[in-house]
Design a protein that fits this description.
With about 190 residues, this protein is mainly alpha-helical. It has one domain. About 80% of the residues lie in helices and about 0% in strands. Helix 7 runs antiparallel to helix 8. The protein is elongated and about 50 Å long.
Length: about 190
């Protein structure tokens, strides 16, 4: 039997998981990111290892929820395997990057630099490209909602480019814009496509 609440669950779970991860980034993870100069960054991570690991674990949960959301969306619009394959590749990059941040970076802070580029640049870029492909295959995406959707992907692209260029302030700004747009957009997607 068709139950709208159950079938619309992935976008709501994705919104909640990404909200939790974004809040962790803005609070407990921020002092350990490249926005902070060494050696303060490494000292913060060493002194707050449990919080650091918990915060990055939330990002892994958020990535899993994004995969579930993309699968849900892909099934609704008959998008085929391409977008989901890109999202899975993004997840692999994310999982590697965040695992290094959780396990290795507290003792070897020099490993964090490549991990930030991998998660922010590569993984986010693949997720963004998958979202673009799903958008192009979604019928009836028009008007203000279409503009909102394209703003999400534009901010995702800006984040990826900034992370790969190691432009830290631009990365932080693009991250803030992306999640301010993306989290309520997921909820709106759930309401539009139950």
């Amino acid at each position: 039997m068709y139950t709208p609440l159950r079938t619309a669950l992935p976008p709501y779970v994705c919104a909640a998981a990404n909200l939790a991860a974004a809040l962790a980034l803005a609070t407990v993870l921020a002092p350990g990111t490249p926005l902070v100069d060494e050696p303060a960054r490494a000292a913060y991570v060493r002194d707050h290892v449990a919080l650091w690991r918990a915060g990055w674990s939330l990002w892994i949960v958020a990535a899993i929820s994004l995969l579930a959301f993309y699968r849900w969306w892909s099934q609704r619009v008959g998008a085929g395997r391409g977008p989901l394959a890109l999202a899975v590749a993004g997840f692999v990059a994310d999982l590697v990057a965040e695992s290094v941040l959780i396990v290795v970076a507290p003792d070897q802070p020099e490993m964090a630099r490549a991990s930030f580029a991998l998660t922010g640049g590569v993984a986010n870029g693949l997720y963004t490209l998958a979202g673009v492909l799903l958008t192009l295959r979604t019928p009836h995406m028009r008007g203000a909602f279409a503009a909102w959707t394209w703003a999400v992907w534009a901010s995702g692209a800006a984040l990826s480019m900034a992370a790969l260029l190691e432009a830290q302030l631009l990365t932080a700004a693009a991250t803030a814009v992306l999640f301010a747009l993306f989290i309520p957009w997921c909820v709106a997607m759930g309401r539009r496509h139950p």
